[in-house]
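Page 47, continued from p. 46.
Same chain as before, 160 aa.
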Amino acid sequence: MNIERWFLMSFSLICIIALFKLVPREKVRDACVLFLFLQVITWPAGLFAVEMGWIEYPTQLLPQANEYNRTSFSFEFFLFPIVAIIFSLYYPGNLKWKGALVYYIAFAGFFTIFEVLLEKYTSLVKYHEWKWYWTLLTVMISLLLNHRYYLWFRKRLVQV
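Result:
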């Protein structure tokens, strides 16, 4: 097993521990909704970017799955959804639009910097036609859609 797979396993373990530490027991259902809805967004978007040849994930945690789906299972289906859970559960509800923009940029920026570093120093991500600002933009849009869905879900849950 190469160093990249060890990195993916270690980061996945850190994310699992973060979930247990950062998601309150009464918010587990909310976390599940956020996790699953973000996967609805990231799967087709990630698949589209990979199939267009814009981005590639040469090293996979589950390489046998790469035969059918060349997106990154670790990033698209696990790590980014966990970031989205933390984003929405800790979103300060009293922010004005400037504060909200900073919050979005901070989370999306963290994820973008992380991906750019991985692209530069590992074989986990390879940009072809993709640029860092596309990651920033798509992460911000994904977080926005996911958070809006979450707010709608919470509102509908209270009404029932």
